[in-house]
Amino acid sequence: MMRIDVVTLFPEFFSAPLDVSIVGRARQAGIVAIHCSNPRDFTADAHRTVDDSPYGGGPGMVMKPEPLFETVRSLDLEEGTPVVVFTPQGRPLKQRIVRELAQSPRAVMICGRYEGIDERVRERLATHEISLGDFVLSGGELPALVLIDAIVRLLPGALGNEESPAEDSFSHGLLEHPQYTRPPVYEGMAVPDELVNGYHARVDRWRRKEALWRTYQRRPELLGSAELSDEDHELLAELMAERL
User: Fold this and answer.
1) pTM exceeding 0.70
2) Which helix or strand (DSSP H or E) is residue 191 part of?
């Protein structure tokens, strides 16, 4: 079982999302345990203060280091446990980071609020600084939910089909091929013949071609780091000759 600890001022933010769908079933099956800890429970003053004005002045408030340090210490972590801080200054979240975290038996996610967290938390506690993209959110709770979902679906037994993660976008550096289901024709739009009447080898070749083409069209920068074989390069050249 993997354990994920979330450090958040709003534990209730996680109640419903973590009880449904893949994550909810994985929790019920004992595949993952998810716990929330509130830094307010580790304050020493009557007002349970977790933030203060920034040194040097400026707008907003900054989360204090003491409650965050004490919260993480209460988790009794083993050395090397991943501790994630969500920040616009972090590395963009990629599938390879998700795979790395999913291989750990435990992970901690610290959700900032206000104008951010005291820099000493990042310096001393964080092993990973992660960003979802070049935009600003009110806190780290939504990124934490995104990362939890991405991690859990990689854990053995979390998905009904164990091959599903291997077919996802980014699993091999490419976007996923198009997907179809019944009916074979809808409002004049037909499912490609290779999927309806093809043998497995033909289906596999079609899917690989379409994944290559979709990646080339929508995210061409991914091709430079994707796991491409000589056959993939031949397929891509063939596609360009056909479709450009």
Assistant:
1) yes
2) none
